[in-house]
Amino acid sequence: MYRMSGVTHFFKRNAAAYLFLTPWLIGFFVLTLYPLAYSLGLSFTNYDFTKPDSTEWIGLGNYLKMFGSLFGLSQFTAVNGEMMRVDPYYLKSLSVTLIYVFVSVPLKLVFALAVAVLMNQKLRGISFYRVVYYIPTLLGGSVAIAVLWRKLFEKDGLINGVLSAFGFTDLPSWITNPNFALGTLILLSVWQFGSSMIIFLAGMKQIPQEYYDAASVDGATKVRRFFSITLPLLSPVILFTLVIQIISAFQVFTQAYIIGGGKGGVLNSTLFYTLHLYIQGWTYHQMGYASAMAWVLLLIIGGFTAIVFRSSDWWVSYGVGE
Amino acid sequence: MVYPVVWMIVSSFKANNEIFSNPGLIPTTLTFENYITGWRGYAGTSFETFFINSLLMCAAAIIGNLISCTMAAYAFARLNFTGKRFWFMIMMITLMLPGHVTLVPRYILLNNFGWVGSYLPIIVPKFLATDAFFVFLLVQFIRGIPKEIEEAAIVDGCTKVGVFLRIIVPLATPALVTTALFTFLWTWDDFFNHLLYLTRPDIFTVSRALRTFVGDAGAVSNWGGALAMATLSIVPAFILFFSLQKYFVQGIATTGIKG
Lengths: 322, 259
Description:
The complex is a heterodimer.
Chain A: H1 2-42, H2 61-67, E1 75-77, E2 83-85, H3 90-120, H4 126-139, H5 143-153, H6 158-165, H7 181-191, H8 194-205, H9 209-217, H10 222-250, H11 254-259, H12 273-283, H13 287-315
Antiparallel strand pairs in A: 1-2
Chain B: H1 3-11, H2 16-21, H3 33-39, H4 47-78, H5 84-96, H6 103-112, H7 120-127, H8 132-143, H9 148-155, H10 160-171, H11 173-189, H12 192-197, H13 206-210, H14 223-233, H15 235-243, H16 245-255
Helix pairs in contact in B: 3-14, 4-7, 4-8, 4-11, 5-8, 9-10, 11-16
């Protein structure tokens, strides 16, 4: 009798909440947890989307296919006896993505911070500037802007048109030149600093004016006030933005796909990780391999996020520093 | 900063040969030719269809996100239940999870359902609150609503469902607008899912259709048409941005939404 009422009590207490959570729970189990486990399983197989019936367990074959060249391999025998070739483009796609993340994210945040400092002054027409700086972020991820970007940086595009008006000659096609192609994509990312700027600006508004007043009385210069007050007090916000930006930069796809015309560009100079994953999984139907690539991406992103959080001990402050 | 965008808009009214030769902003002749040629679209389907497809798909996505994310957020923000801390932690983890890791099995699963080549793979997940960003945003907002109103309602005999529908939903309107706004923009601008699942020209969205201007080798034959349709494709974002500016700033500042 007591047990029954316990169960009834448990049910009564939780029924409403779980009713409200039902859609989310279904989504979590069917569209997140199950695929997560499934893709881990697939990553140890040679699953081919066009012939799923001939799927075989190949152990770490897909992982060796990615990193085999680090051990001097060009081909190897998987546990099912299948001869596998090491993917010659995987490490290239990894390095393209790492360069992109390590150059674009810091540049973008420094830019966002600098502009946020300027915007935090009580200037006239501030709302106009906010609009101007935010528009690139508003549109930046769209196919429209990627198409525009191609047009800007082509051989006869706008950038070269402007440069030649200033007397430059022999200008390259920035998009198809392997030395510059990645640079144009980094520029496209930095151009979209608007949302980071708005977050920094909101953080700066939280800093009490008294700190600045007190520092001014003590004779601190503007530069000194920035480094001793603004930067330390903003550091938790910077940490948060940095993590979000790193995670999303690793996953960039649309711009690379459009600007490279669905491929990795000349000499694979813009073969981003996710683009390579898409080509392997959907052009070549190697979905077992694509799953393995996705899991490695997850580990890489998780690793970098952990490193950033660890490092925050010595650069993020949660109070007024001395 | 906005010069490239302004240039795109102006150039879409230039003659095709002038786009190449004249980097300036002032066209020598004004023409709507690009809009006419671009509007013809791809594979016999015009941009009229692509725009209607995009708008209907976004409308369904907004409805899905509003219902499912608000429901989940109400449970997390206001109700006490066994396992709440655990599920909330899971929700926050999914917020950080890169989508690619679930991509292949999702595709196989949805393909088995026979959904590839329809909008269902894009719309149905919205009804299952898979955009954890919005759950988080709404949780933050609902936590800020004073509890006294609900307590009074419960004393008056209002059920939890009643509280949700009559108190939480009306009071959370600003956060719901932010959710609807960003759902629209992200669904409209998304390309990857459209590329994977919208496999026939007659169900293409605007962003999927724009890609057809840039061929496989990256070559574009009709630059004027491409710029004209690209210009049209950003019009909805502009309209929403200028009419709902404060919701943008609020949405970004409270959750640090990506971008």
